[in-house]
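Q: I have 124 residues here and want to know how they pack in 3D. Can you give me a structure?
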Amino acid sequence: DVQLVESGGGSVQAGESLTLSCVASGFDITNDCMGWFRQAPGEERDGVASVDDNNRATYAEFVQGRFTISRDSARNILSLQMNSLNPEDTAMYYCAAGDTDCYGGTLWSPAYKYWGQGTQVTVS
């Protein structure tokens, strides 16, 4: 079975950093479109960052220059380094995997087939 398990969320002060991890099992993340999404209470789910099979990444404008997505194919882990966090970044963060590649990455959620359970990030 395909599983995505996120970790690394927590409560931090504005300006601080967090690194989220997503451990994948049941498939190899190397050749698939991988992404991070987030959803705040009462809000729609937004794409945050995505990476394709050649590690070309795309980012939402609101995290550009602050967040970095990366893939460790050897350990089958997707990460999201988040710097200069601000209260607007408070949300549940979800890891997602497509079952095909996505050239350059995509923040379009229907492109993703598998989702993790989420990890909460709170910035005050």
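Q: Anything worth noting?
A: The mean pLDDT is 95. The two ends are 37 Å apart (CA to CA).
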